[in-house]
From TrEMBL:
One Pfam family from the record: SF-assemblin
Transmembrane helix in keyword set: no
This protein's record includes keyword Transport: no
InterPro entries assigned to the protein according to its UniProt record, in alphabetical order: SF_assemblin/giardin_b
Location in the cell: Cytoplasm, Cytoskeleton
Coarse class of the protein's main subcellular location: cytoplasm
Record keywords: Coiled coil, Cytoplasm, Cytoskeleton, Microtubule
GO MF terms held by the record: structural constituent of cytoskeleton
Protein name, entry field: Uncharacterized protein
Family indicated by similarity: Belongs to the SF-assemblin family.
Listed GO CC annotations: microtubule
Species for this entry: Oxyrrhis marina
Region (Disordered): 1-44
Amino acid sequence: KAQPRSHFGSSYLPAAMKKTQVRDSRTSHPSGIQSIIDDPGPLQNTEQHQKLNSLTAQVEGMAAVFEEANKAREEHRKMLEERHQDVLRRIADTRDYVEQESKRLKDTLHTFQAKFNHELANLRSDLLSDLNSMVVQIRTTISDLEGQVTGLEEALQQEKEDRITQTEEILGGIRKQVAQLTTGLEQERKIRQNREKELLKELSDAMDLLNTTLFANIVLEPLDERAHIVDDSVLALEAMLGLFDKIVTQTGAQSRRLGLDLVL
């Protein structure tokens, strides 16, 4: 693995260290510029020596700082590595758990699907069996009902024909009776009319004869005999009227009897 870069670079160096590096780069140049090795004089040597000691102390302090920074960086790197390994371990555990759960869910789904398909097939088979049984039963019932309907239609047609035949027989006899009664009634009506004409003629003749006789007797007979003649004439007239009423009554009764027979 690549080592992580340090958080301490050249930008973290002290300003004195930077100046020393610049001065060293200038004095080491072979152009004859004065360096710390030259000995210009006692005063300058003392100042340079002090600066050098200060610089050495600063360098040593920086070394300690760098060492502490390296240790901190190493500890930080180890901590990050441990965190990284922990994250990887958790990821691996999560992946294993997900795979196990996926396998378990897949097995459960497969089992449920197999059970569901089996139960669905059984249910479909049971429903088809029940449906076939119901269809057979319904067809049998329909066949029985069709047979009953056919029998009822035949019986109804036969009953209709029998009723028509019976009605024709009854009406045929009634028609014959009506024809006979109509013929008899017509004959009776003609006879009654002729008889009424005869009776009216006889009554008219009798009235004329009675009037003639009564007038002749009343005129010719004495006064005391006229009352007897009138009484006899009245009695004869009443007898004739009674006979006429009797004939009319008999004729009406016979006509009513013929009409009643016709109605029956």
